[in-house]
TrEMBL record:
<protein>
    <submittedName>
        <fullName>Imidazolonepropionase</fullName>
    </submittedName>
</protein>
<dbReference type="Pfam" id="PF01979">
    <property type="entry name" value="Amidohydro_1"/>
</dbReference>
<dbReference type="InterPro" id="IPR032466">
    <property type="entry name" value="Metal_Hydrolase"/>
</dbReference>
<dbReference type="GO" id="GO:0016810">
    <property type="term" value="F:hydrolase activity, acting on carbon-nitrogen (but not peptide) bonds"/>
</dbReference>
<dbReference type="InterPro" id="IPR006680">
    <property type="entry name" value="Amidohydro-rel"/>
</dbReference>
<feature type="domain" description="Amidohydrolase-related">
    <location>
        <begin position="57"/>
        <end position="407"/>
    </location>
</feature>
<dbReference type="InterPro" id="IPR051781">
    <property type="entry name" value="Metallo-dep_Hydrolase"/>
</dbReference>
<dbReference type="InterPro" id="IPR011059">
    <property type="entry name" value="Metal-dep_hydrolase_composite"/>
</dbReference>
<dbReference type="InterPro" id="IPR057744">
    <property type="entry name" value="OTAase-like"/>
</dbReference>
Length: 450
């Protein structure tokens, strides 16, 4: 076997949920975990690169199960739908993929995208021409004519931005087959949407039978289904129809929880987007009255999700990275903190959600834990996430990011993205400011002029 890497002295959190082990050696060979503990020390040779992790935590790379790497941090749907080109968006996605990896995220599920960029970016990363996290990708999000969160900006049929309207059973089935033909790993369905003429939160815009058709068609072709659900009925129906994973699951009631438990549906609540909007939305123009609505959505949903967690439902962490309030490479680990704060998970359970459980989104058992035979996706962290889960959000605490046995360069700065005139980004000047956890007086001053 060729030379590899030996990490010594660290406290290993292996991602399985087992108690941490102090001073545990990790040997990496050919991109995989070759041995642990005494075996690792015994098998290591002079040729192996050494990493001293004394006083530090060694843990699996994070899995972010809800990203939008092709979106390029828009502040609104107009920008996203009407002011982008395929080629530029592709290059922007490649640029952003590096930032994700540097944030300690070694795997992502990117469930819907502009054009077919998700699948192409996944392959570009896999073939080594783009540096980024391992990806699983979806294509266009399926919508009914009622649309999704973009309301009437979604055309009555065909594609708009990241969405495709599927009117009728045949169109639905054909679109799923088309996406699978071009390489998707997941099908994304927007089960709720905002209807401009109806005041209030999102409403369910799919019938149960339609959802069944989607799930049956995808499953027959060995493809999983993830659903955006922001009310109770949508989560209930999606789970019963056979959806494999649910994003948001907002306001789920006991009946929805029962359906989720019964069907073994995975949950990826993605509080981070709402949390960032609640905390920083005001700075980027969100109406003040909405901030409390976002906060309430998190609190009400989390209270219910705690019951689902107690019942053994599988939780994954997602950040909805890719919007202006969730800039790429900055907020991937906030979800762990929110799971602890709002759902009441232990830091260890939150880590399992962000590592081992992420394997489900990646559709392979080879990621998510540090066990012999798994991909060597490893973080060395200067701190103890079990004592302070927020340490994973600190770039300066991330000492090493290793993907498939390769150390990622965390030092060379990534060139700053400047806006080109055709970018319709009113607030992107403000966007980098959301990257700091606290705003300085100077930043607030700048924001007030945006
Ligand atoms: Zn999303």
């Amino acid at each position: 076997m060729g030379s590899g890497m030996l990490i010594t002295g660290g406290r290993l959190i292996d991602g399985t949920g087992a108690a941490p082990r102090d001073d545990e050696a990790v040997l990496i060979r050919d991109g995989r975990i070759a041995a642990l503990g005494a075996d690792a020390l015994a098998q290591a040779t002079e040729e192996d690169e050494r990493i001293d992790a004394t006083g530090r935590t060694v843990m699996p790379g994070l899995v972010d199960a809800h990203t939008h790497l092709s979106f390029g941090e828009p502040t609104g749907n107009d920008e996203l739908f009407n002011h982008r080109t395929e080629a530029y968006s592709s290059m922007l996605s490649a640029y952003n993929a590096r930032k994700v990896l540097r944030a300690g995220v070694t795997s992502v599920l990117d469930a819907d995208c502009l054009w077919n960029i998700g699948v192409e970016l996944r392959d570009a990363i896999e073939t080594g021409i783009v540096e980024g996290p391992r990806m699983r990708a979806g294509g266009q999000a399926l919508m009914t004519m009622l649309g999704g969160t973009a309301g009437r900006m979604i055309k009555d049929e065909g594609r708009t931005g990241y969405a495709t309207v599927v009117n009728g059973r045949d169109v639905m089935v054909n679109e799923i087959r088309r996406q699978i033909k071009y390489g998707v790993d997941w099908i994304k369905v927007m089960v709720t949407g905002l209807i401009p003429s109806m005041k209030g939160p999102e409403v369910k815009v799919w019938t149960f039978d339609e959802l069944r058709t989607v799930c049956d068609t995808a499953h027959e072709l060995n493809t999983l289904v993830v659903a955006h659900c922001r009310n109770a009925e949508s989560t209930r129906d999606a789970a019963r129809a056979g959806v494999d994973m649910i994003y948001h699951a907002s306001y789920l009631d006991d009946e929805a929880i029962e359906a989720v438990v019964e069907n073994g549906t995975a949950m990826c609540p993605t509080f981070t987007l709402l949390g960032n909007l609640a905390d920083y939305g005001e700075k980027v123009g969100t109406a003040p009255e909405l901030l409390d609505v976002f906060r309430a959505e998190i609190e009400i949903t989390a209270k219910q999700l705690a019951k689902a967690h107690a019942a053994g439902v599988k939780f994954l962490t997602g950040s909805e990275t890719g919007f202006a309030v969730t800039p790429v490479g900055e907020w991937h680990a906030r979800e762990l903190e929110m799971f602890v704060d709002y759902i009441g998970m232990s830091p260890m359970d939150a880590i399992v959600a962000a590592t081992k459980n992420g394997a489900f989104a990646m559709r392979t058992d080879d990621v998510g834990t540090i066990e012999v035979g798994k991909y060597a996706d490893v973080l060395v962290v200067d701190g103890d996430p079990l004592a302070d889960i927020k340490v994973l959000q600190r770039k300066d605490a991330l000492v090493e990011v290793i993907k498939e046995g390769k150390r990622i360069d965390l030092k060379t700065p990534i060139p700053e993205r400047k806006m080109r005139s055709s970018d319709q980004v009113r607030f992107l000047a403000a966007c980098p400011l959301t990257r700091s956890l606290a705003f300085t007086e100077e930043q607030l001053e700048m924001l007030s002029h945006v």
